[in-house]
Each structure stands twice: as C-alpha cells, then as structure tokens.
C-alpha cells in the first residue's frame, strides 16, 4: 500500500530567503523551539545539513507512538530549493512502513516578487499486513512546521 499527502502555504518573502531556513539545519532548531509539544530534541548524528546528513528526532514526552526516529536527508537541492528526508530507523518504520519520506519545496511565485509557496508532502509505503496504520499518516505536523517557520522567521501572515 502506498500514499501521498501534500499541503502548500504562501509566504510573503522571496524564495531565496525562505530557502535559507527550509534548506538548512536551522529548520531543526526552529522545530524544537517552536513545536515543543511535538519534538523535544533534534540531534545531528552525522553530516552538515547537506545530502546524506542523518538526524535523530525525539518526540515530546507523552506523545503517542515511538519516542524517536532517525532520518536521512536524501536530497538537499539548493538550485531547485527541494529538501527530501527519509526515515531510516524507528518511528514509522517500526509500525510496518517500508518508506516514509518528507519533502519540502520552496517555489518562486510567478509574477509575485517577494513571495513564494512552500509545499510540504509526505510519501509512504507500507506492508499490506500493516495497512490499517496508514490512518496514522497526517500532513498536519508538516504544516505545523511550515507555519512555525513563517511565524518564527518571517513574522508573516499566511493564507
């Protein structure tokens, strides 16, 4: 079984400025500081924020499910402003998923100087015997991260 969820928000800053945050390790720091009810800590296991960097993310105490997971940055494409991470240990993989991928894209809006779109998406695959766990997948945490960056870094209303 496989699936994909996606959501977009409008950000009233140039794509190059938004990418400085979404495309860097600064994103991890913002996530922990801005969303303490979801994540308690993010550690860089290996790497500098470029492709193949491994992060260990810890959920806040009291959250349902696994306590942590490790993800690898599979793609960090500065030219196209795309970051793709894949869970490589724990988290959804412990629940029967064979793939759990999060993608963040910063897209320059045509004809709108100083504005961009940030698209977050989740792609997943899971074993047939764990198909009921597809109900656990939600785009809401990704949207919360996207919105938190906007509030913390750009102080911008989003629509």
TrEMBL record:
GO BP terms in the entry: abscisic acid-activated signaling pathway; alkaloid metabolic process; defense response
Keyword Lipid metabolism annotated: no
Source organism, top-level taxon: Eukaryota
Any one cellular-component term (Gene Ontology): nucleus
Bet v I/Major latex protein domain: residues covered: 2-134
Molecular function GO labels: abscisic acid binding; protein phosphatase inhibitor activity; signaling receptor activity
Keywords, sorted A to Z: Alkaloid metabolism
This protein's record includes keyword Hydrolase: no
Cross-referenced InterPro entries: Bet_v_I/MLP, Plant_def-hormone_signal, START-like_dom_sf
Family annotation (CDD domains): Bet_v1-like
Family that this chain belongs to: Belongs to the BetVI family.
UniProt-recorded name of the protein: Bet v I/Major latex protein domain-containing protein
């Amino acid at each position: 079984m496989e699936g994909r969820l996606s959501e977009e928000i409008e950000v009233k800053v140039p794509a190059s400025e938004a990418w400085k945050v979404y495309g860097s390790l600064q994103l991890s720091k913002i996530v922990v500081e801005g969303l303490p009810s979801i994540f308690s800590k993010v550690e860089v296991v290996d790497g500098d924020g470029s492709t193949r960097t491994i992060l260990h993310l810890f959920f806040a105490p009291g959250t349902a499910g696994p306590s942590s997971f490790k993800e690898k940055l599979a793609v960090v494409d500065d030219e196209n402003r795309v970051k793709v991470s894949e869970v490589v240990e724990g988290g959804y993989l412990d629940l029967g998923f064979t793939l759990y991928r999060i993608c963040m894209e910063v897209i320059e809006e045509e004809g709108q100087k100083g504005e961009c779109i940030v698209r977050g998406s989740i792609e997943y695959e899971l074993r047939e015997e764990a198909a009921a766990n597809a109900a656990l997948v939600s785009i809401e945490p990704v949207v919360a991260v996207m919105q938190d960056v906007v509030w913390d870094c750009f102080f911008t209303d989003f629509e």
